[in-house]
Amino acid sequence: MKTILVTGGAGFIGSNFVKMMLNKHPDYKIINVDALTYAGNLENLKDISHNSNYTFIKADIRDRQKMEEIFSSYDINAVLNFAAESHVDRSIEEPEVFLTTNVIGTQVLLDVAKKHWKVSPEDKYCKEYKQEVKFLQVSTDEVYGALGETGMFVETMPLMPNSPYSASKASADMIVRAYHETFDMPVNITRCSNNYGPYQFPEKLIPLMINNCLKKKDLPVYGDGMQIRDWLHVSDHCAAIDIVLHKGKNGEIYNIGGNNEKTNIEIVKLIIRTLGKSEDLIKYVKDRPGHDRRYAIDNTKITTQLGWKPNYTFEQGIKETIEWYLNNTDWIENIVSGDYVKYYEGMYSDI
Ligand code: NAD
Fold first, then answer.
1. Residue ranges of the NAD(P)-binding domain (predicted)?
2. How far is the centre of ligand 1, averaged over its atoms, from the C-alpha of 100 (Å)?
3. CB of 161 within 8 A of CB of 191?
4. Could you tell me which of 158, 17, 164 has the C-alpha nearest to residue 83?
């Protein structure tokens, strides 16, 4: 049996990933380590909370002692590092926690994993690792910066992050790479485009617009709304990570994207149309400072070398996603009111 440590597994992508893995690999044990910040929500995982292959531990990835305890208690084969501060707007208001969690947290995990995975843990120069171990860093296309009207991100491009969020993720990518180059740590880095799907925190574009539409509140659109993002359904992202975990070549970086370039205003208008509301709800607001104009992912490497391809078309994925939010208004209400935090207080296991 493989034991996989997922960090940030109570967040949007992490919770989708944990559920997919338990379903797809019933012989794997999944340990979910999450600090339960404002973005972590155990309600996302309530259908699997009693699965005997699943353990939740409330812990902060910056807490070295706690990470040591976890690695000493379980024979961990892989770390999938989803834990992060993930919202660009928040990184502009309060950059510091982005650096401590996204950079230092990643370095703590690398260090502890290195110590426990080395064949001779006490030998600081030993570069030999146990069989079948891997550190997989879940990163983002935002590390590449912004594109002009043409071109796509490829894995060999220099990193040119423009927001404190993307700069912290780029820094984490660099430190992961450095542990591979310096200490021979077995690693992969994935860089995915914008995700959408169920359980996304309602501060992000798609759930925010759906929620505001339903409540007939203003739909705030930055600048002229012509910023272009490449959208991928969260389940396609999770499937890609699973493939990189099992088939990714040691030390390699893989872009993940679905060739679905859309302007923000197109998405907003699509949601308005689908929900039968009026475009009068749109309110253009002052653009975000340093707002990247366009992202587009070249996914040739992962599609040709690892055989991944997305299952969802954008049209199908967005339709199902809007339906999910319509059928799960309680989930959003609990978040907005903070009720889930109170409900789950103390309802997690510890090591
Ligand atoms: P999210 O904000 O929904 O979830 C982040 C999770 O990390 C939360 O559960 C939170 O409690 C946890 N966390 C935060 N700080 C922590 C800490 N110090 N210790 C332990 N846990 C902590 O984010 P998401 O959208 O699910 O993104 C997950 C990962 O994927 C991030 O690394 C993000 O950079 C990356 N990513 C996201 C997207 C996207 O479109 N959402 C695209 C590409 C890559």
1. 5-321
2. 14
3. no
4. 17
Tens of pLDDT, residues 53-70: 999 999 999 999 999 999
CA of 278 to the centre of ligand 1 (A): 33
Distance CA 3, CA 225 (A): 44
pLDDT band at 121 (very low <50, low <70, confident <90, very high): confident
**2-344, superfamily in CATH?**
NAD(P)-binding Rossmann-like Domain (3.40.50.720)
pLDDT digits (tens, 9 = 90+) for 92-116: 999 999 999 999 999 999 999 999 9
Domain assignments of the chain as residue spans, ordered by start: 2-344
According to the model, what pLDDT value does residue 293 have?
A: 94
With the most atoms of ligand 1 within 8 angstroms of its CB, the residue from 86, 171, 234, 256 to mutate is: 86
Order across the sheet with 261-263: list the strands: 194-196, 228-233, 261-263
Residues with CB under 6 A from ligand 1: 7-8, 10-14, 34-37, 39-40, 60-62, 82-86, 101, 105, 138, 140, 169, 192, 194-195, 201
Strand partners, 187: 135
User: Of these residues, 129, 144, 165, 340, which one is catalytic?
Assistant: 165
